[in-house]
């Protein structure tokens, strides 16, 4: 769920970043990944979700803070992203990934990255334009985040549930 003030911050960041890369597009939905995208066979969906529910059942709600601007590219360097990296809550996210990875291994699916950079993507563009966005642009974007009124509260995320998307269906796993 996104607050109006977060969208104001997003607009400031994207507007500034577009002076470096005009083709940047703001994200319309926001998430923090705990796995790579994987393909589930149709008959795996129900047992996969059941296993995920069991593995995540003991987790409690927690907070994380995503306030460090960072530039990312996808694995094959066909897309570049500006994101907010998690600066607090990393340990809890690693614990969640460990359980998600166990479920993925049950189905012989690829697990998450060895040393993940947990982040929320804010904007993207086609191609590897990381060189244009790093350096001066990145410093300016971080200054915007650091100086934005109420950014400390805005960028504090309470984890109350984990969601899994399969096709056009969403499955929710509440945290205790």
From TrEMBL:
InterPro entries: Cyclic_Pdiesterase (IPR009097), Usb1 (IPR027521). One of its GO terms (cellular component) is nucleus. It holds the Pfam family HVSL. One of its GO terms (molecular function) is 3'-5'-RNA exonuclease activity. One of its GO terms (biological process) is U6 snRNA 3'-end processing. Keywords: Hydrolase, Lyase, Nuclease, Nucleus. The keyword Transferase does not apply. Gene3D superfamilies: Cyclic phosphodiesterase (3.90.1140.10). Transmembrane segments: none annotated. It catalyses: a 3'-end uridylyl-uridine-RNA = a 3'-end 2',3'-cyclophospho-uridine-RNA + uridine; a 3'-end uridylyl-adenosine-RNA = a 3'-end 2',3'-cyclophospho-uridine-RNA + adenosine. The keyword Plastid does not apply. 3'-5' RNA exonuclease that trims the 3' end of oligo(U) and oligo(A) tracts of the pre-U6 small nuclear RNA (snRNA) molecule, leading to the formation of a mature U6 snRNA 3' end-terminated with a 2',3'-cyclic phosphate. Participates in the U6 snRNA 3' end processing that prevents U6 snRNA degradation. In addition also removes uridines from the 3' end of U6atac snRNA and possibly the vault RNA VTRNA1-1. This is U6 snRNA phosphodiesterase 1. The lineage of its organism: Eukaryota, Metazoa, Chordata, Craniata, Vertebrata.
């Amino acid at each position: 769920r996104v607050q109006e003030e977060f969208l104001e911050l997003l607009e400031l960041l994207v507007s500034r970043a577009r002076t470096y890369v005009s083709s940047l597009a703001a994200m319309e939905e926001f998430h923090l990944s705990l796995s790579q995208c994987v393909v589930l066979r149709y008959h795996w969906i129900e047992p996969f979700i059941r296993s995920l529910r069991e593995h995540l059942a003991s987790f409690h709600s927690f907070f994380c803070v995503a306030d460090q601007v960072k530039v990312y590219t996808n694995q094959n360097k066909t897309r570049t992203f500006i994101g907010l990296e998690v600066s607090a809550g990393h340990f809890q996210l690693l614990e969640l990934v460990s359980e998600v990875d166990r479920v993925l291994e049950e189905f012989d699916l690829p697990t998450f990255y060895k040393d993940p950079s947990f982040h929320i993507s804010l904007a993207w563009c086609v191609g590897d334009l990381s060189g244009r966005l790093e350096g001066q642009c990145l410093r300016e974007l971080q200054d915007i985040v650091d100086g934005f009124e109420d950014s400390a509260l805005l960028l504090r995320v309470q984890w109350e549930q984990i969601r899994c998307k399969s096709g056009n269906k969403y499955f929710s796993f509440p945290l205790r």
